[in-house]
């Protein structure tokens, strides 16, 4: 039986304090509920800057937008425990 891991993607930029805080929460949760974490820096991508720029960090769980600005640890755990 194959267990599919969740994929969590964070769109952000370097030197973004909210992005750093979100990554801390993601890494903390990842220690107890393992998932694949993808970090995407939007700094050099005009399309992503236009889409996410004023709202970063933006976090997707399994390709569904779950958080903007801040990651709620309890909600993230609930999302990851659903399946």
Low-pLDDT ranges: none
Mean pLDDT reading: 94
CATH superfamily: Glutaredoxin
What is the overall silhouette? globular
How many separate domains?
1
Please state the oligomeric state of the protein chains shown: single chain
Distance between the termini: 14 Å
Helix segment count?
3
How do the strands of the widest beta sheet line up side by side? Answer: 2-1-3-4
Largest sheet: 4 strands, mixed
Provide the CATH topology.
Glutaredoxin
What is the helix/strand order?
A: EHEHEEH
Structure description:
It contains three helices and four strands. The chain is of the alpha+beta class and 83 residues long. The protein has a single domain, classed as Glutaredoxin (3-Layer(aba) Sandwich), CATH 3.40.30. Strands 2-1-3-4 form a four-stranded mixed sheet, with helices on one face. The model has no long low-confidence stretch (mean pLDDT 94).
Would you spell out the secondary-structure blueprint of this structure?
Elements (H helix, E strand, L loop, with lengths): L6 E6 L4 H16 L3 E6 L4 H7 L5 E4 L2 E5 L4 H9 L2
Parallel strand pairs: 1-2
Antiparallel strand pairs: 1-3, 3-4
Features:
25% strand, Glutaredoxin, 83 residues, alpha+beta
In short:
With 83 residues, the protein is an alpha+beta fold.
